Every structure is written in C-alpha cells, then in structure tokens.
Amino acid sequence: MKTIQLETEGYQPPKAGLALLQCLVGLLFFTFVLRFWYLQIHRGADYEQQAQANHLRQESVYASRGLIRDAGGVLLAENRPAFGLALIREDCKDIAATLAQVSEWAGIPLEQLTARFEQDRRKVKPFEPILLLTDMDFEQVARIEAQLLHWPGLEIVTRSKRHYPEGKEFAHILGYVAEANEKELAADPYLALGDTVGKQGLEYVFEERLRGHKGLYSVEVDVLGRSLGKTLTEEPQNGENLRLCLDVQLQKKLAALLGDQTGSIVVMEPHTGRLRALVTNPSYDNNLFVGGLSQKTWESLRDDPFHPLQNRAIQSVYPPGSVWKLMMAGLFLKEGVSPSTRVVCTGSVKLGNREFRCWRRGGHGAVDMVQSLLHSCDVYYYVLGEKMGIDRIEAFARACGFGAPTGIDLPHEKSGLVPSRAWKKRRSGEPWYRGETLNVSIGQGYTLITPLQMAHFVSALLNGGKLLKPQLLMDAEPEVRGTLPFSAEARKLVVEGMRVTADVGTAKVLRRTDAVIGGKTGTAQVVKIRMVGDRRQRKEEMAYLERDHAWIASYGRKDGEDIVVVVMLEHGGGGLAAGGLHQGLQLRHGLLVGVVPGLQPGAGEAGQDGDVPGLLQFFRFLFSHSTSISSDGCL
C-alpha cells in the first residue's frame, strides 16, 4: 500500500477564516455590551419604574367638593364621609364566590350585584377597584371589615357624600349630584368609575368649579395585594366654595307662606340682578338622588300630577294676564299715545260678531293710562292694542326680554312665547286674526311667560332700563343683557301707575305708610269663561285645573333700597276677602293668606284682578319689617 506523506513544515492556516471567527466573537461580545448598556443605562430608569410598579399601585385621592352657602354663610351643600365596598379583580381568587358573599352581607340579590360587576369590569383595569356597595352604615362596615382577611380583593373605601341640609327649600336651585353615567364618563376623561357629578341645578352648571382636582397615592402591596403603606405623591385640590345671594331665612319663610299652594315667588334686587329668594312649590328632597333613587320613588316623583321636579319660576310658562299691561303701556307711550288719552269702557268691545268683555261688567267709563293700570281696565288695552297690531306688540315684547331666557345660571330655563304671524303660520298653517291681537293685548291668548321673566322686566323699570341677568352668586358682577325700549318718562309713568294701583287701586292692600309700594295684580284665564245665566262661573264651581292663575308683580322701596317681588299661584284666583288677625298663615279655598301679628289685613277691590286679596297679604308681610340689605348681603 502506498503511503501519502504530508509535509506540515511551514504550513499556514487560511487567514481569512481566522479573521472571520475573531469578528464573530467580537461582534457577539459587542452585542452583549450594547444590550447591557441599553437595558441598564438607557432604559434603566424605565425598567426600574416598571419593577416598582409590580408592588406599587396608583390610588386616587378624591378632592373635597366645594361647599355652597347662602348670603349669610348658612351651609346649603356640604360633604359627609361615606363608606363603600370595592373589589380588585387582580387580587381576587374566586370572583363568583366573593360576589355571593357580598350579596349575603348586603342583602342584595346576587343577579343584581353580578350584573353591576359585569357592566363595570369593562371600564376599569384589573388592578383598579370596582365599587360594589355604597353608603354603608357603620354597623355594616364593622361586620364586613372583620371578615376581609378571608376575602382577598375586597377593601373598604371612603368617599365623601353630598348632603343638602335645607332639603326641599333649595332643591331646585342647588340640584343634586349622582354617579356619572356611561355618557358622562366617555365625554370627560378626568372622570373615573364611581365618580359623582352634578346632574341638576347649580351642581350641574358649576360642576367644573365645584369638582376640584384629584390627588394620587402610591400604595405598596404584598403578593396578596394587601396594602403595606402609602405615600402621597400629588396633593388633591378641593373644589371652589360658592356663596349665593339667596337668603335662607327668607326662602324658608316664603316657602312656608306658600304652604300647599302650587306656585312660585321671585324676590330680586333691581339694581344688581341679585336674587334674594327663588321659591317653587311643590318641591322634592334632593338628598334622595345622591345615594341612588329606587324605581318606586322615581316613579312617584315622575308621575306626580303636580310635577314637584319642575322649577316653576323658570320652567313653567303661564299667560301673564293683567301684569302684561305694564309692558303694553310702555308700547303705547313709545308709539305716541298720550298718557292723558282716554278710552271709554262700557264693559265690552265688539269685533265682528265677537264680544270682548272687560272684567268689570258695568265698565269703567272714560279712563286714561294711569287709570287703566289703576283699575286694570281691559277695554283700554283692547282698543289701543288693536290699533298697535300684533307685529309691533311682538317686537316690543321681545325687546322687553320676553320670549327669550333671562340667562340665569340654572339649566333648562324656558323662553316662554311671544306669538307672531309667522309663529302661528308655522304652528297651524292659519293666518293671524284681529281678535287674537285683542287677547294678546291683555296677556291672554297664546302669550306665555315665566315668573322670573316678569321680575326681570319689573326690575328694568326701576333700574334705568337695564335688563340685568338674574344672579345667584354673591360675587357675580351685574351683567346687562339688553335695554328696555322705554324712555325715562315712560318708565317713570308706569312705575307711578304701579304705585297708585297699590295705593288706591286693585292692589291697595299693599299700601303702607312706612314704605313706597307699587304693584300690579293679574288673573290669567286657563279656560274660556263660562257664564251661568248672566254671571260668570264662580271659582268654587270650577274644577281645580280650570281655575284662573293669580299673578302679582310689585316693588318696594324702603331705607334707600329697592326690591322686586313677583308671585304666581297656579289656579289660585278668585273669591276670598281676607279678614281677621291671625298668626302665621292659612290657606282658604286655594288662596294664600299670610298675616303677621299687628298687621291688619286690608280688603281688595272685588273683580277680576281684585280677587286675590289673600295673595296680596304676603306682600304686607314682606314689607312689615325692614327690608334693607346689610353689608353681608342679608335682608
């Protein structure tokens, strides 16, 4: 066999292969070094934070909602501690069993509790709490807390609960807070599951100011999710406190005077726009909504025929009746009618085949403008209103602030209705008829206003013609939203007409020797007048919902201060002469009688606008003591 001999002397391995191996080793080493630098140095802080997050959790610190007080500092909306039970899914070993136990503790059907859990779980992360129970009492908290060690994932949470000490008297003004719904959560990224937000009233309008800003806790937990300690990393900022210009004592007194009568009262400073009282009746307890309303309670409020959830001062609209004549008088003056121009009232006026009656069957004779206000003569306004025409009436009424919101800081204010040719055409497809102009001229027909709009208008008569936004906050500056289309002479004449009406006219029970009082009464028909023989149907012969509404718009001046008061009573008109001396108040035949000791009631003139003497006694109460305004804003 032939042997092959290899000569190894002087043999050199390929240099290219060795260089490649060295490069690969170097590249691998460089990659490890680069990765090490990236993880430890470049991203070190991030990974350190993630590592800490494995045993640290962020927990919100709820800010205290701003307090609300009246003009004198009386608390109207406050915060009270409330306890809830929350579940953290990440720490819970058996969710089904845990929910069953919570159902047993709380006495809530398991199906209901499970449905809430399934609804809320999609809105939070696994380590964030889901609120299962709210507003637990101390006994329930103590019983559950003693067993929490056996139920990981459950924890007692403390939240603040809104409380309204005055309840019904301020419910429509303050509104209420309740848990944010899905729509609100989606619209506001700041909100989290379980947060409460303003739903109505000032709580809704000033939500951003009252809410405040949450703080943050860093909570250290063990492997079972139990808290080992917490550190405050961001201070919460409490909500802004609000001070109203309303007076709680006046508000409560006026609510008591209304008693069971359906209606509203507005008390306003004409020169600042500040509201001193805004009463509506019936009302409701807004505390019911804070903790969640049962279906039965909600249905009883919703279906109540007297609509207690409705703020009648701004959300109910009524025919203004004869208080509308104050505005009509201004229109006549603007259009060149002399205050001394007389119209002969024989008790009615005919238009075609229709007869439009004055409230006084025998008529008033020849009356000028001041006398027309003094006696509330309908024929005067029929005749001159028909000459003006609906187009001029509509334009002037809108310039006076009617047919539009006043701008008050409350939601859902109604605009009322100032009818026009175009409006009727849109509504029914029919043209405007002359007889409808006569109805509008005395505040009947299609015309609708709110009590606040009337106070808004009367205030402008007194303050130089400025249509001021009605203000609820003490620190709000007067805001002019328009100018009354009255000359200074016209305003003076109408205000003087109100004074004379309160002195010797249909509102003469307002008359006082220690204050300057002016007023205009009004009766707004709800249904067409029915005749019984040759007389009108009496109030007691009518169904309650067919009875007239009773209005009075007034002002008072005492100790250098002016105040405007407007009262509207639903179906409260007609037929009672107040008499006798009584303590407090009483309701007779649907009329308000508020008489104070030492104040002898007067007697109103009988007739359409003189049929509310019981209502007028309220004003005598209001001005029976000083109404001057102190430096702290109290009456």
Structure description:
The chain is built from 22 helices and 25 strands. Residues 574-607, 610-616 and 625-635 have low confidence and may be disordered. Strands 2, 3, 4, 5 and 10 form a five-stranded mixed sheet that branches. A hairpin with a 2-residue loop joins strand 24 and strand 25 (591-594). Helix 14 runs antiparallel to helix 21 and helix 15 packs parallel to helix 21. It is an alpha+beta fold and 635 residues long. Helices cover 33% and strands 22% of the residues.
Question: What would a concise description of this structure say?
Answer:
It is built from 22 helices and 25 strands. With 635 residues, it is α+β, with helices and mostly antiparallel strands. The chain is elongated, with a radius of gyration of 37 Å.
List the helices and strands and how they pair.
Layout: H1 15-42, H2 44-53, E1 56-61, E2 68-69, E3 75-88, H3 95-106, H4 110-121, E4 129-136, H5 138-145, E5 154-163, H6 171-174, E6 176-179, H7 182-187, E7 196-200, H8 201-205, H9 207-211, E8 215-221, E9 227-234, E10 242-243, H10 248-258, E11 263-268, E12 275-281, H11 287-290, H12 295-302, H13 312-315, H14 325-334, E13 343-345, E14 348-351, E15 354-357, E16 365-367, H15 369-375, H16 378-388, H17 390-399, H18 421-428, H19 434-441, H20 451-462, E17 466-468, E18 480-483, H21 488-504, E19 516-524, E20 531-532, E21 535-536, E22 549-558, E23 561-569, E24 585-588, E25 591-594, H22 613-622
Parallel strand pairs: 2-10
Antiparallel strand pairs: 1-8, 2-3, 3-4, 3-5, 6-7, 8-9, 11-12, 11-23, 13-16, 14-15, 17-18, 19-22, 20-21, 22-23, 24-25
Helix pairs in contact: 14-16, 14-21, 15-21, 16-19
